[in-house]
Amino acid sequence: MIQQRISDQIAENLTAMIARGELKPGERLPAERALASRLEVSRPSLREAIQKLNSRGLLVTRRGGGTFVRQGIKPSFVDPLLAMLRELPESRYDVLEIRHALEGTAAYYAALRCTESDKENIKRKFETMLSRHDDGDPMEEARADAEYHLSIVEASHNLVLLHVMRGLFTLLINSISHSLDKLYTLPRVFQPLSNQHRRLMEAVLEGDPQKARQAAQDHLVFVEESLQQIDRAAVHERGHLREIK
Q1: 49 burial class (0-12, 13-18, 19+ CB within 10 angstroms)?
Q2: Contact call for residues 151 and 192 (beta carbons, < 8 A)
Q3: Which residues of 121-156 are buried (b: 16+ CB within 10 A; e: fewer)?
Q4: Most CB atoms closer than 10 Å: which of 61, 107, 166, 178?
Q5: pLDDT score, position 2
Q6: Cα dihedral 155, 160, 165, 166 sign
């Protein structure tokens, strides 16, 4: 049996940290000495592992600037689905439908498994999301919304679920930016969204899995129905413009 190289083991550990969200896209890795101490490995072995992950495209090392988790890492299923969504815009509702099942499950397990660190992260992402509403940039608010939901998925401590949900949020941000833009500028939508997000957070923090799952699903029903109303209004407006012409 061939013994695995130490550098390969370190590379696997770092990859798992990225998958779990402990190291996020764009984040700089700790200093070499500190990271080697944290992983209880030698600095030469750590250096070799980082080189391996650089070659795989997970990390990028900037001369004199440190090593960073590469921005834009996304599951391999995202690109072909983005192409499909561009050709069949109505299929974006398929994305929302699958979120019903996945996010309800994520909220359920987050309520059961979240740590104190997870709770602090969820509360921090919730506050950031609220603050983005006052900045006047709907797409940044939508991204903050996605980060909030991902913080709950992270708290479920299910790596497969986290991997899939990151891909779905990439799809949402890329495929329905026009709808998200309109969704976050509607005064009648913001307050219900905020209330739903708060109820979801409180259910997770209270450790009530059934309540958390229901809160997640109620929220997604509202989002889907709101986006459908926006789309119907857009179709009506285009028809009205054609009549004028």
Answers
A1: buried
A2: no
A3: bbeebbeebbebbeeeebeebbbbbbbbbbbbbbbb
A4: 107
A5: 41
A6: positive
What is the pLDDT, as a whole number, of residue 136?
A: 72
> Residues 167, 71: contact at Cβ < 8 Å?
no
For the chain, give me the number of helices (H) and strands (E)?
A: 11, 2
Q: In what helix (H) or strand (E) does residue 68 lie, and over which residues does it extend?
A: strand 66-69
Coil, strand, or helix at residue 229? helix
CA distance 51 to 62: 12
6-69: CATH, from 3.40.50.720, 3.30.70.270, 1.10.10.10, 3.40.50.300? 1.10.10.10
Round to whole Å and give the CA distance between 230 and 130.
Answer: 22
Instruction: Output phi, psi for 72, to 5 deg.
Output: 80, 15
pLDDT attached to residue 173: 66
pTM of the model: 0.68
Q: If phi over 0 gives left and psi between -120 and 50 gives alpha, with beta otherwise, what is residue 190?
A: alpha
Task: Note the pLDDT of residue 107.
Answer: 97
Question: Which regions in the chain score pLDDT beneath 70?
Answer: 1-4, 72-92, 172-182, 184-187, 233-245
In the chain, where the domains are located: 6-69, 78-244
Report how far residue 45's alpha carbon sits from residue 47's, in angstroms, rounded to the nearest whole number: 5
Query: What are the start-end ranges of the H helices in 1-115?
Result: 6-19, 32-39, 43-56, 78-87, 92-113
Q: In this structure, which amino acid lies at residue 40?
A: E
